[in-house]
Amino acid sequence: MSKETPNLQLSAAENPNLAEVKVETVRAFEGSFLHVEKDLVRLPDGKQVSREYIKHPGAVVILPLFEDGTVLLERQFRYPLDRVFLEFPAGKIDAGEDHLECAKRELKEETGYTASDWSFVCTIHNAIAYSDEHLDIYLAKGLQAGEAQLDAEEFLETFRAPVSQVLEWVRAGQITDVKTVIGAFWLEKIMRGEWVV
């Protein structure tokens, strides 16, 4: 096995020996929010197969960190899994919307809080086998409480918890939402001064 550091993320043009090349696309389903594409693709060995995947506009995740080391979380029912999840605030990016502005909007709408200090943390791809969705994670500090402005179809509760408690809930399997798990690990590193954003 080579000891060289691999190229971590290469485009199809940069890595043709692994690339799958689109031959044609058919929209299999068009919803108001999500779309399903069914593409015919050519594999590196020349064979053709179909690939079905969900088109998603992308989303933002906010890590609202208070000066006392607590974070703001939400309890929200998620229909596909028929249960309430503990999550960081998050939301879909509207067409043409700046990602940071989306994060500010979502934090205000869902929780009522605004923040004076924003930092980009990272981008994650949470479902690479069947969706093009990406989530941009932002750290929000300098938090000020206000009035939430939930959408008509949105029901959630907010609460504060220490980051150490959030990590314990992750360890115990009580937090399983991937954006919240990754956000908690980032917060731990940031608060220890090990990772800088």
From TrEMBL:
The keyword Hydrolase applies. It holds the Pfam family NUDIX. GO terms for biological process: nucleoside phosphate metabolic process; ribose phosphate metabolic process. Keywords: Hydrolase. It catalyses: GDP-alpha-D-mannose + H2O = alpha-D-mannose 1-phosphate + GMP + 2 H(+). The lineage of its organism: Bacteria, Pseudomonadati, Pseudomonadota, Betaproteobacteria, Burkholderiales. This is GDP-mannose pyrophosphatase. SUPFAM superfamilies: Nudix. It comes from the Bacteria.
